[in-house]
Amino acid sequence: MPSGACCGNSANNHHTIQLTTKESSMSQTIQTNVNVSGMTCGHCVSSVSEELESLTGVENVAVDLNPGGLSTVTITSTKELSPSEIGEAVAEAGYLVVANEA
Predict the structure, then answer these.
(1) Which of 61, 39, 37 is closest to 51 using CA atoms?
(2) Which one of 11, 13, 40, 98 has the minimum C-beta count within 10 Å?
(3) Sequence-ordered strand ranges (E) for the chain
(4) How many C-beta atoms surround the C-beta of residue 18 within 10 A?
(5) Cα(86)–Cα(42) distance, rounded to whole angstroms?
């Protein structure tokens, strides 16, 4: 079981993540937006950010925290990240990933 969730019993909390990826034609970076429910504080943000920043190619992680709603995480990377890469990193932080339906 992941140990990173900080604001409640992670075994009973289900967190939803939706992925949107945009490739910038002006630069060599890719931005991936991830909507996360269940992040309620700075510790949640730090936990998720730290795990995502450990992925190869990630240059920046920015979080727009919205306690009680969807928080938007923007990942800037030099390569496209797969949903499984992002999912594993977020799971390590104590959150669950749900694939975005196309």
Answers:
(1) 61
(2) 11
(3) 17-23, 30-37, 58-64, 70-77
(4) 16
(5) 20
Q: 61, 75 in Cβ contact below 8 A?
A: yes
d(CA 24, CA 92): 28
Question: Could you state, in chain order, the average pLDDT of each consecutive group of 10 residues for the chain (102 residues)?
Answer: 54 52 70 82 94 97 85 91 88 70 46
State the pTM of this model: 0.74
DSSP assigned state of 51: H
CA angle 64, 60, 77 (to 5 degrees): 115
C-alpha to C-alpha distance for 5 and 67, rounded to whole angstroms: 14
Q: Name the packing angle between helices 83-92 and 42-53 (round to 10°).
A: 130
